[in-house]
Design brief:
Layout: H1 6-29, H2 32-36, H3 40-69, H4 72-78, H5 84-98, H6 100-107, H7 109-117, H8 127-152, H9 190-199, H10 203-207, H11 211-214, H12 222-247, H13 257-275, H14 284-313
Length: 314
């Protein structure tokens, strides 16, 4: 999102994640040739995955036309650090590696069987697997964030309601991934305008500020930040809470639920990108390709759903 924006960035990442994440489970179980490639319903599902990849390609091509149509200045207006080449590289690595989440869910089948054996309803059998899979993601993020806290000396921010950053501080670009950086750096750009306004206050008004602010520190809404972080984490988790529930209703082709999940995210993130005017000034060709990408992605979910239906009636 930092280099490509919400719509294009999510399309590339989640599109690759959808393709690899859908194919990994049947390959892992040794069922790909017999139950997928060897059946009509399985081949229909593969067609849906292929259509999904076409949608990703159309979204990527739309990004290329967008880059050609917009001047660097126009690109920076909507996405501060727009860089197609760097963004696609990061998105490709992220998309392929993120598909390992699906591998983790598939590897957790023995845990699901054990929970059902002990009386857990089928609808909830996937929840214990999420505990183990998410521990891996937590560990990686915890270690990396801890390293950033040590390097940038920002660990105090978890407990202090006052920032040590002075009002006239110019952000040092050599320090990466602080609280104000990627992936949503532009979201907090309004902070700069707030500081500018405060500099314009009279000296008498400044003297009335709390001592911590007078010394150069910026006030931080600690309670709101913690509540928003908790809300973001809970909301993010619920996608997999409901995903594991839906997966239990997909029959023997439940691996295809990953494609439906990812395609839905791509569709709605693209719509959000349009709503946030990320494609404003991108040109007619880019707009048409983006519309084609959305149509293909929606079509892929329909095809995958039909393939699962065939698997139930055969």
């Amino acid at each position: 999102m930092r280099y490509l924006g919400l719509s294009l960035g999510m399309a590339v990442v989640l599109g690759l994640c959808a393709a690899f994440g859908t194919l990994i489970p049947p390959i892992f179980r040794g069922e790909f040739m017999t139950q997928v490639a060897g059946t009509t319903s399985g081949r229909v599902i593969l067609l849906g995955i292929f259509v999904c990849l076409l949608g990703i390609a159309a979204a990527g091509l739309a990004g290329i036309f967008k880059e050609r149509a917009m001047s660097p200045e126009q690109q920076k207006v909507t996405i501060k650090e727009f860089d197609l080449r760097k963004g696609v590289g990061v998105a490709t690595l992220s998309g392929v590696m993120s598909a390992c989440f699906a591998y983790g869910l598939a590897a957790g089948d023995p845990i699901k069987a054990l929970t059902v054996k002990h009386g857990t309803p089928d609808l909830w059998q996937g929840l214990p697997v999420l505990v183990l899979v998410l521990i891996g993601g937590f560990t990686t993020n915890f270690i990396w964030c801890l390293a950033l806290n040590i390097r940038n000396k920002t660990g105090y921010q978890y407990f202090s309601s006052t920032s040590r950053e002075p009002w006239d501080h110019v952000h040092d670009e050599t320090i990466i991934e602080t609280a104000l950086d990627a992936p949503g750096k532009e979201v907090v750009e309004h902070i700069a305008s707030t500081r500018t306004e405060l500099r314009g206050r009279t000296s008498a008004a400044v003297e009335d500020l709390p001592l911590s602010q007078n010394a150069g520190g910026a006030p931080v809404p600690m309670l709101a930040n913690y509540l928003l972080c908790a809300l973001a984490g809970t909301t993010w988790y619920f996608q997999f809470f409901f995903y594991t529930m839906g997966e239990t209703q997909m029959g023997r082709y439940k691996f295809s639920s990953w494609t439906l999940h990812m395609a839905s995210i791509i569709i709605f993130s693209s719509l959000w990108g349009i709503g946030l005017k990320e494609w404003k000034g991108a040109g007619v060709q880019a707009g048409r390709l983006l519309a084609l990408a959305l149509a293909l992605l929606v079509g892929s979910t329909v095809i995958v759903g039909y393939g699962n239906y065939l698997g139930l009636v055969q």
